[in-house]
Design goal:
Elements: H1 4-13, E1 17-19, E2 31-33, H2 35-53, E3 59-62, E4 68-70, H3 71-77, H4 79-82, E5 84-89, E6 96-98, E7 118-121, E8 124-127, E9 137-140, H5 145-150, H6 152-159, E10 165-174, E11 189-199, H7 204-221, E12 229-233, E13 245-251, E14 261-270, H8 272-277, E15 281-284, E16 287-290, E17 298-305, H9 306-317, E18 318-323, E19 326-331, E20 342-346, H10 352-366, E21 375-377, H11 383-393, E22 397-401, H12 403-408, E23 410-415, E24 421-425, H13 426-437
Parallel strand pairs: 3-10, 20-21, 20-22
Antiparallel strand pairs: 1-2, 4-9, 5-6, 5-7, 8-9, 10-11, 11-17, 12-13, 13-14, 14-17, 15-16, 18-19, 22-23, 23-24
The chain binds glycyl-adenosine-5'-phosphate.
C-alpha cells in the first residue's frame, strides 16, 4: 500500500501540489496546485463534465454560481443550524479536536483533560460591503449544491426543461474543518463536482440506484483498481437530515482502520432543498409554479471532491518496479488523466540539427488541434534520467529524436508501462496518440 508520505513528497518534488502559504510557515488546511496538479485537476474535471453531460436520460445544464452567498441561503438550507462538527478543546494546551475523531478522553498531544463536546459551525463567515453588521454577513459556500438549488427556477424559466434533468457545477467550497488532515483528503478550501438530478419522486429510487452504479463505473473506467473501491450504504440512523438514502463510494486511502474512507457521496436528497428555498412552489404540468397541486421534484445528488478524487488517482496509480536492474517509481495514470501526454527529447542537446528537428516534432504535437495532447520538452540529463522523470509524473509516452530521425523521419516512441520502444514515422505519431486519448 502506497503511503501518504510517498505521495505528498512526490507531489511537492514534481510540482503537483505545494503546502499553502508555504514560505510563511504554511496555513493549515490549504494547498497550492503547481503546474502538473493544475493539469491533472483539469483532466479529472473534463472527464467529470463529459460524464455529467452524457447522462443516459434527460439533459444537463451547467452552472457557475457565486462562492460568496447570502446568509439567507444557509438559513434555508439548514447549514446555519446543522452544519456543525462536535469540538473538544484541551484545557491544558488549548488544541482543538473533532470529538468523533479522537480515541481517548485525554488530549492526544499533551495528555491534558478535554472539555465536553460543543457544536462548531464549519462555515466561513465574511462581511460584504463597507459596513460590518448583521445585515452584511455572508458566507463562503461550504458546498456548491445550494448554488444549484437557488438557481433552479432561473433554469426552468430560461430553458423550460421537462423532468428529469440535471444541473451540474464544479467549484470551490470552504469548510473550517476543526482538524484538516491527510493532505488534500480533508482541507479547508477544496473543489467539488456536484450534479443535482431533478426527477419525479416516483422515479427517484431508480435514478438513485443508476447514479450510484454510474459513478462507480466512472472511477473504474478511469483506471482505479476494483479491489480498492467499494460501496457503503448508510443505515437509516447514519443519514443526514435531508437524505432518504445515501451511498458512499469508498476508496482504500489507507487512512482508517480498515483502510477505506469516503471518496464520493451519492444521496437521494428528496424535495428537502427545493421545498425550503421555494416555499409554496410545486411542479405542475411542465412548470414550477406557486401552487397547492403537483409535487416538488426529488433530487439525486452525486458529490465528489476534485482534490479527494485526485488523491485517489495518485495513490492508485503509484507503483515501484525494476527496469534493467534499476528501481523506478511510476505513476500508471490513465492516459486521459496524465498531466503530460507526451515528452519530447532530443537525444543530444549539443547537436543543432537534432535539437532543431526535435523542436519541430515538439511544436507539431504541442499545437495539436484536438487539444488532447499536452506535450513537454526535456533536454536535461541523459535519456535514462529523462525517462525516470516522466515515469514519475505519469507521462504515457516519450518521443526521442536522434540521428536516424534526420535520415528517415522516424522517432522512437517509448511506452511508460512496458518501457518498450518502437520506431514510428513522425507523420504518424500525433494520430496514434490522439486515437489512444479519444
Ligand atoms: N452536497 C453534498 C456534500 O457536500 P459532503 O459529503 O459533505 O456532501 C461531498 O461532501 C464530497 O466533497 C466528499 O465526498 C468529498 O469528496 C468532498 N469533501 C468534503 N469535505 C472535504 C474536505 N474538507 N476536503 C476535501 N474534500 C472534501
Amino acid at each position: 500500500m502506497t503511503s501518504l508520505d510517498t505521495i505528498i513528497s512526490l507531489a511537492k518534488r514534481r510540482g503537483f501540489i505545494f503546502p499553502g502559504s508555504d514560505i510563511y510557515g504554511g496555513l493549515a488546511g490549504t494547498w497550492d496546485y503547481g503546474p502538473l496538479g493544475v493539469l491533472l485537476k483539469e483532466n479529472i474535471k473534463r472527464e467529470w463534465w463529459r460524464a455529467a453531460r452524457q447522462l443516459p436520460e434527460g439533459k444537463t445544464f451547467s452552472l457557475d454560481s457565486s462562492i460568496i452567498s447570502s446568509a439567507k441561503v444557509w438559513q434555508s438550507s439548514g447549514h446555519t443550524d446543522h452544519f456543525t462538527d462536535p469540538l473538544v478543546e484541551c484545557k491544558k494546551c488549548k488544541r482543538r479536536f473533532r470529538a468523533d475523531h479522537i480515541e481517548s478522553d485525554k488530549c492526544q498531544e499533551c495528555g491534558g483533560e478535554l472539555t465536553a463536546p460543543r457544536s462548531f459551525n464549519m462555515m466561513f463567515k465574511t462581511s460584504v460591503g463597507a459596513v460590518e453588521d448583521e445585515s452584511s454577513t455572508a458566507y463562503l459556500r461550504p458546498e456548491t449544491a445550494q448554488g444549484i438549488f437557488i438557481n433552479f427556477k432561473n433554469i426552468i424559466d430560461a430553458f423550460h426543461p421537462k423532468l428529469a434533468f440535471g444541473i451540474a457545477q464544479i467549484g470551490k467550497a470552504f469548510r473550517n474543518e476543526i482538524t484538516p488532515r491527510n493532505f488534500v483528503f480533508r482541507s479547508r478550501e477544496f473543489e467539488q463536482m456536484e450534479l443535482e438530478y431533478f426527477c419525479d419522486p416516483k422515479d427517484a429510487d431508480k435514478y438513485f440506484s443508476d447514479m450510484r452504479d454510474a459513478r462507480m463505473q466512472w472511477f473504474l473506467d478511469l483506471g482505479i483498481k476494483k479491489e480498492n473501491l467499494r460501496f457503503h450504504d448508510y443505515a437509516p440512523d447514519e443519514l443526514a437530515h435531508y437524505s432518504k438514502a445515501t451511498t458512499d463510494i469508498e476508496y482504500r486511502f489507507g487512512l482508517s482502520k480498515d483502510g477505506f474512507s469516503e471518496l464520493e457521496g451519492v444521496a437521494n436528497r428528496t424535495d428537502f432543498d427545493l421545498k425550503n428555498h421555494f416555499v409554496g412552489y410545486r411542479w405542475v404540468g411542465d412548470d414550477f409554479i406557486r401552487s397547492e397541486d403537483g409535487f416538488i421534484p426529488n433530487v439525486i445528488e452525486p458529490s465528489v471532491g476534485v482534490d479527494r478524487a485526485l488523491l485517489a488517482f495518485l495513490i492508485d496509480a503509484y507503483d515501484e518496479d525494476e527496469l534493467a536492474g534499476d528501481k523506478r517509481a511510476v505513476l500508471r495514470l490513465h492516459p486521459k488523466l496524465a498531466p503530460i501526454k507526451v515528452a519530447v527529447f532530443p537525444l543530444v542537446s549539443n547537436k543543432e540539427n537534432v535539437v532543431a528537428k526535435a523542436r519541430e516534432v515538439f511544436d507539431m504535437l504541442n499545437s495539436d488541434r484536438s487539444s488532447l495532447i499536452t506535450a513537454w520538452w526535456d533536454d536535461i540529463g541523459n535519456i535514462g534520467k529523462r525517462y525516470r522523470r516522466q515515469d514519475e509524473i505519469g507521462t504515457p509516452w516519450c518521443v526521442t529524436v536522434d540521428y536516424q530521425t534526420l535520415e528517415d523521419g522516424t522517432v522512437t516512441v517509448r511506452d511508460r508501462d512496458t518501457a518498450k520502444q518502437e520506431r514510428v514515422a513522425i507523420s504518424e505519431i500525433a494520430g496514434r496518440f490522439i486515437e489512444k486519448l479519444s
